[in-house]
Write a structure and sequence with these properties.
Bound molecules: adenosine monophosphate
Pathway: Metabolic intermediate biosynthesis; acetyl-CoA biosynthesis; acetyl-CoA from acetate: step 1/2
CATH architecture of the largest domain: 2-Layer Sandwich
Distance between the termini: 28 Å
GO molecular function, one term: acetate kinase activity
Subunit structure: Homodimer.
Shape: globular
Mean pLDDT: 94
Structural class: alpha/beta
CATH class of the largest domain: Alpha Beta
CATH superfamily of the largest domain: ATPase, nucleotide binding domain
Number of helices: 15
Radius of gyration: 22 Å
Order of helices and strands: EEEEEHEEHHEHHHEEEHHHHHEHHHEEH
Function: Catalyzes the formation of acetyl phosphate from acetate and ATP. Can also catalyze the reverse reaction.
Cofactor: Mg(2+); Mn(2+)
Number of strands: 14
CATH topology of the largest domain: Nucleotidyltransferase, domain 5
Largest sheet: 8 strands, mixed
Number of domains: 2
């Protein structure tokens, strides 16, 4: 058997769990070389059509699939544990150092990864009113993992943590202070693990200390958010109390006049739940053109489809506004960096978002932009005043790294 301890004899594996309302994603990493030993996804938990796909990375094994009802998160995690055990990577292994959980909302209290105690779990529960879709699933994932390995450190890594450094004037909405404070209404921001990882990797790409560089990170996935990071600290981000605010996303509207909601209630007679559903699930790219996959939208644009072209233009226009706004917030920008599904893969989005921003010192070299690669890379010309980069995100690696660092300190 290959040794799986660090050189000082300590366990070196971390299991990362990302529990959604009806899904669990997992990855097992070996932190000696940060390699992935296995990855998996359980989806449609609670339905008849549940599905588990497990991919062993070591030895290049083929993905294995299970179908049929998986009743709840406990069964999902047990099924994942069985698949891991079949590869000799069981959760009962002494090589497992900790389990790292993605937790969406950490409020103001959790600015760092945190070992989960009963008190910490209670605090995550207290945040359910500001993250009703996400925190309950995260809590279920934690409880289930605790039951499987009660002896093992379980660590919460919060999506909001990186943004807790935002100054008060950026985090506070201009609404009545007492009302806002009573209901904990402020800008929290999300995707923090990605913004932290990508901004740090961008400094490495530039060959400069993190403390010296100012970066605008554009995390463009199905969910999308921008952040302004000054010397490694987040000073502004586009998502707010919830992940609805900011950029145009796959199915979320991003910024709208808040009065749109009153209007839909008073004039269109929609309920609050219907408006919630509209803005979160039936807006953004899907609402504008019926598709949320940027590949499909570009294919339609190439064919002359006007609705797809409008969706693309609205998406890019919003991006430009944020690049301009965050340039002003930072004062000096060293790099604009694209990441996540759209940011890493869509050359047309990157080209269009930067086009016309020469006055900001921004330009894209078409040949560099066309390169497809999984590596961090510059796509600006050599003589550009501000670097434009593509840096693939890796939230699981960041969660594993933060978890491992915490339990080994
Ligand atoms: P994420 O949430 O980071 O997994 O990103 C998912 C989104 O990335 C999808 O909805 C697509 O819009 C987009 N995407 C993935 N691959 C490509 C690609 N090759 N070209 C353009 N967009 C892509």
């Amino acid at each position: 058997m290959t040794p799986t301890h660090t050189t000082d004899g300590r366990a070196s594996r971390v299991l990362v769990l990302n529990s959604g309302s009806s899904s669990v994603k997992y990855q097992l990493l070996d932190m000696r070389d940060r390699s992935r030993l296995a990855t998996g996804l359980v989806e449609r938990i609670g339905e008849e059509t549940s599905r588990l796909v497990h991919t062993p990375s070591a030895g290049g094994g083929a993905p294995r699939e299970r179908t049929g009802r998986i009743a709840d998160h406990e069964q999902a995690l047990k099924a994942a544990a069985e698949e891991l055990a079949a590869d000799g990577l069981g959760l009962d292994s002494p090589e497992l150092a900790a389990i790292g959980h993605r937790v969406v909302h950490g409020g103001l209290r959790f600015s760092e990864p945190t070992v989960i105690t009963d008190e910490v779990l209670q605090e995550i529960e207290r945040l359910v009113p500001v993250a009703p879709l996400h925190n309950p699933a995260n809590i279920t994932g934690i409880r289930t993992a605790q039951a499987l390995r009660p002896d093992l450190p379980q660590v919460a890594v919060f999506d909001t943590a990186f943004h807790t450094t935002m100054p008060e004037h950026a985090a506070r909405y201009a609404i009545d202070v007492e009302t806002a404070d009573a209901h904990r209404i402020r800008r929290y921001g999300f995707h923090g693990t990605s913004h932290a990882y990508v901004s740090r990797r961008t400094a490495e790409l530039l060959g400069r200390p993190v403390a010296d560089v100012n970066v605008i990170v554009l995390h463009l996935g199905n969910g999308a958010s921008a952040s302004a990071v000054a010397g490694g600290r987040c000073v502004e981000t586009s998502m707010g109390l919830t992940p609805l605010e900011g950029l145009v996303m796959g199915t979320r509207s991003g910024d709208v006049d808040p009065a749109v909601t009153f209007h839909l209630k008073r004039v269109a007679g929609m309920s609050v739940d219907e408006i919630d559903d509209l803005l979160n699930k039936r807006s953004g790219l899907v609402g504008l053109c019926g598709d949320n996959d940027m590949r499909e939208i570009r294919r339609r644009v190439e064919e002359g489809d006007e609705r797809a072209a409008l969706a693309f233009d609205v998406y890019v226009h919003r991006l430009k506004k944020y690049i301009g706004a965050y340039s002003a917030v930072l004062g000096r920008v060293d790099a604009v960096v694209f990441t996540a599904g759209v940011g890493e893969n869509s050359a047309p989005v990157r080209e269009a978002a930067i086009a016309g921003l020469e006055g900001f010192g921004l330009a894209v070299d078409p040949d560099r932009n066309a390169v497809r690669s999984g590596e961090p890379r510059l796509i600006s010309p050599d003589d550009a005043r501000v670097a434009v980069a593509v840096v693939p995100t890796d939230e699981e690696l960041e969660i594993a790294g933060q978890t491992f660092a915490l339990v080994h300190n």
